[in-house]
Every structure is written in C-alpha cells, then in structure tokens.
Amino acid sequence: MTELLNLEPELETFEPWQLTAFSAALTERMYPNFALFSRLVEFGDAAKLRQVLDGVWDSLTGRAGKMNFEVQQEAVEANMPDLEEFDMYGAWPALDAVVALNATLSCILEKDLTAATSIGQLSRECVATFLEVTEGDDQLSDEELVKLINTHDLMLAEDDFREEVIERLRGQKTPTAEFVSSLRELARNEGVSNIGISDED
Known about the structure:
By secondary structure, the protein is mainly alpha-helical. It is built from nine helices and no strands. It is globular.
C-alpha cells in the first residue's frame, strides 16, 4: 500500500561509507521494533543485534576493531522471526529490523547500492503496514487507504527523516567521529522507532 521509492538517483553518487551510514541510520531507527518484540515474546538476542549495529557505527569511524561482518551476518539471520510461528503483528516490524541489519552488513561487505536502496523501501513499507493494521478499516477504499498512509504523521516523519539523512550525508566528505555521532543520535530518535514505539522504560 505504499509507492515504490526510487532512491537510486539520490544514492548512486554516494561513497561506500555513505551508503553504509545511510543503511545504519535507517536500521537504527527500526531497531526498537525488534528489541520490544524480543523482550515481550522472549525471542532472539536483542543484545547481540545491538552489538552488531554498534559495530557498524564504529566501523564508519575506523574503530571497529576486529568485527567480522561476514560471521556476524549468520548471527543476525538466526534472529529473524518466523512469521508462521508468531501469529501476531509485532513479528513483522521485528523481522523488518533484522532484515535491515542484514542488508546493512551486505552493504558493508559488497559496497552495494541495491542493499541501501532496499532498506529505504523496507523502512517505508514497515510504516505503511503498521498504519494499515492500526488505522485502516474495511470501510476505506484502496485510494482512501493510500491517502491516509501517505499523509499520516508517521509517514511524513519517515520521509523527512530519510531525506534529512541523505542531505546530511551529501554534505559530508569524510566520516568524522563527530559527524557519525550526530547522525547516530538523529537516527536513535530518543529510542522511538519509525512506527512510534520504544523499548525504553
């Protein structure tokens, strides 16, 4: 129920580090969706995913130490909830967050534009699905539902956030520690995810 984003024109001029930073920022904003699901249903290892995502951020400033992202990809994939096993909506955004982290690692390993653009699309679809589940009803036509989704505050915030990340990256030549820290703080959004939930007390 959401339009396809064409992020390639905006991202194709990006350096590999910028693609990774874009991916990490969107993943960071989705992470609370997994953390909350993990705690509520006692599934997976949110601390492990946090550690891997922290390692991605550290890698941008050359402080990654010896984190082997290829090995970490297996650990990330092990945390993907099976939607057939969990008959609840919360499994969907949780899965989206893990898929985004996995794609971020692909972005690092393969320096792949496609991985970064797919995360942009995934994050937007995550918001659209949430709105369809929570605010859509049978009385709405497809057209009305699309309008509701595209004009909703959460979707506007999603689009604004993505554009802000792109804008900041476009104006930055090198990944200084200060820049990466400020981008990470923006993405953390005080612990509130792209669908407006938090796993913090």
